[in-house]
UniProtKB/TrEMBL annotation:
It holds the Pfam family Acetyltransf_7. Residues 1-131 form the N-acetyltransferase domain. GO terms for molecular function: acyltransferase activity, transferring groups other than amino-acyl groups. This is Acetyltransferase. InterPro entries: Acyl_CoA_acyltransferase, GNAT_dom. It comes from Alicyclobacillus ferrooxydans. Keywords: Transferase. Coiled coil: none annotated. Gene3D superfamilies: 3.40.630.30.
Length: 178
């Protein structure tokens, strides 16, 4: 099974990038990478001052055995901010609560002042929470700027080709809450 199939079997459809876009990112964007092993798949973009983890999937048979923590620790050793998009907790989906608990256990915190809302292909809006880990004292304003870079460079990479629209214009999808 391809890494894309593994990811799309787990993540909600509206969160999955088009397979062509994901392959183009891997093949043509110098910052974007995929690391796949039997126990996990992670796709990410590494910029000079931060890392954006796009997808992290730990195989069901190895969940709860430290695999995800080891992957995150590898990124933490690079001493850069790490940013993630996480589904808000949903009482009907215990995985959402488990993911949040996992990231918080690994030192990530929710960006309380950043609202991030995108639309799926049908125009239905959905909100994701931004979680981050920082090796220094960078505040949420820095995270907001870095997330805007993610929107422009990763989410909108060849988006017109695959979706017929830019899917994450920072001024439209990111808001600062006071």
């Amino acid at each position: 099974m391809s890494f894309y199939d593994r990811l799309s079997n787990y993540f909600p459809e509206h969160e999955m990038k088009h397979e062509g876009q994901l392959n183009d990112l891997i093949d043509h964007h110098e910052a974007y990478k995929v690391h796949e092993e039997e126990d996990f798949v992670v796709t990410y973009a590494e910029f000079p001052d931060f890392i954006f983890i796009d997808y992290l999937l730990v195989s069901p048979k190895t969940r709860g055995k430290g695999t995800g923590t080891k992957v995150l620790d590898t990124f933490k050793r690079r001493h850069k901010n790490i940013i993630l998009e996480v589904e808000p907790p949903d009482g009907d989906d215990s995985d959402t609560v488990g993911r949040i608990r996992f990231y918080e256990k690994n030192g990530f915190q929710k960006a309380e002042h950043i609202e991030y809302t995108r639309s799926d292909d049908d125009g239905t809006p959905y909100t994701m929470d931004i979680y981050y880990w920082t090796p220094n004292e960078d505040g949420e304003k820095s995270i907001l700027k870095q997330m805007a870079t993610v929107c422009r460079e990763i989410h909108n990479f060849r988006a017109l080709k695959y979706y017929g629209r830019l899917i994450a214009e920072p001024d439209e999808v990111l808001s600062w809450l006071h």
